[in-house]
Amino acid sequence: MLKRSFLLVPFLVSLLVITACKDEVTVPTNQMSEQQSVQKSISSVQSSLVSVNRIKSNDDGLWEVKVVTPFGAMIKFEYFENTGQIREIHGLIGPFDYDLDPGNELLLYQDVRAIALNAKSGNITSWKLEKDESNIRWEYRFFITATDGNWELRISAVDGQVLRMKQK
Predict the structure, then answer these.
(1) Residue 1 lies in a domain
(2) What does each C-alpha distance from 119 to 40, 88, 98, 113, 115 come to in angstroms?
(3) 20 in a domain, yes or no?
(4) Structurally, how many domains does the chain consist of?
(5) Calpha distance 131→84 (Å, rounded)
(6) Nearest 5°: phi and psi at 67?
(7) Domain of 64?
(8) pTM over 0.85
């Protein structure tokens, strides 16, 4: 009987360790699901889903959601999987005359688009909304083709101030 107890004790200890380790590995409750990333994207702009993919960036998982507007414009959204926060929005294919609310108390895309085209008349070829890590601020970047060449404009996503106009 004592011999059986010695065999049973290591088994019970192993089971206890496995159970304890299993409890430590939990999924954060604020982690964004695939469905949540799609819903957040299509609620930002009138559109329908083209694709959704989980991608890796450094050690973070990202949701990449591509949508198309009724007029054929394509927009890519990227969200951090672990927090659900936006990483980037990128207008890939025009026409770029749609309404988009990025949330996070940032300016509406259509308002900043008007600021960009008032600062530099031309045709938008693409645009991005991203956090400039060097200045720790959200910026819209517009790429515009004008009669005098190609331009990049950076505009604050918080107050609409034109931060930089650079000919490419």
Answers:
(1) no
(2) 31, 23, 19, 10, 6
(3) no
(4) 1
(5) 15
(6) -130, 160
(7) 34-167
(8) no
